[in-house]
Amino acid sequence: MARGASADEIRKAFRKLAKKHHPDKNPGDAAAEERFKRVSAAFDLLGDPDKRRRFDAGEIDADGREVMRGFSGNPYGQGGHPFGQGGGARSAEFENVDLGDILGEMFGSRRGGFASRGGDVRANLDIDLEDAILGGKKRIGFSDGRTLDVTIPAGAAEGQVLRLKGQGSPGRAGSGDALIELRIRPHAIFRRDGDNLVMDVPVSLPDAVLGGKVQAPTPEGPVTLNVPKGSNSGSTLRLRRRGLADGQGRRGDLLARLVVTLPDTPDEALEQFAEEWRRDRPYTPRGRA
Question: Which domains does the chain have, with CATH numbers?
């Protein structure tokens, strides 16, 4: 039997865990609902003295079903004890979930022979915007000296958590996982606006007045934009599906904001033209929101 785990301790642990995962506290969270069911099933087994005795003796499995006798196979492995007592034993399973994992969460450690799984470790990983869009590989280091190569999926989102199975802290029932939260670094050209990217594209005065073509960067490489005739600073051209991906992998757009830009050096002909224009064709620009 589980040494040191009294019925009162089990009840207290169950109430704490059930409150944490109860569907009313986690509306719409299917994972929490499933966890609540599993915790309830574990308590149904451990909270019933007769079931607990029979399970410990190997007479029933974790679902309460009779264990067939007279076969060479042992459902609990060599040594046969369902709670990990005896050499080479493994934790029983119900609904394809390790009961030792549930018990480890209930008691927070290896209590009374319950083999607990190692804890998860968490880390943040800063990535470039191009890595988030196109995918790539990055190396991350942990405080224990280990390093891991992390595969960044194409379309990764800000705050997305990557789970690396078995790369967490070790435990008797197996190692925990490494949870890597992605953070996208600010970019020198592109600004994030939700799933869209925004950039400024300089346009010469003749191209703004007469229309023209201009080269502009995108995360996948440069493209040629058609500048409409009579474009003003602040006019925006939309490049569809060139932005960031959302949680479903749908990409936003890239918004190219035109900025009419004068020559770097003074131009006498342009200044003379402007003087004549201001004298003969004065106008007041309309304010733009």
Answer: 7-107 (no CATH), 121-184 (2.60.260.20), 191-280 (2.60.260.20)
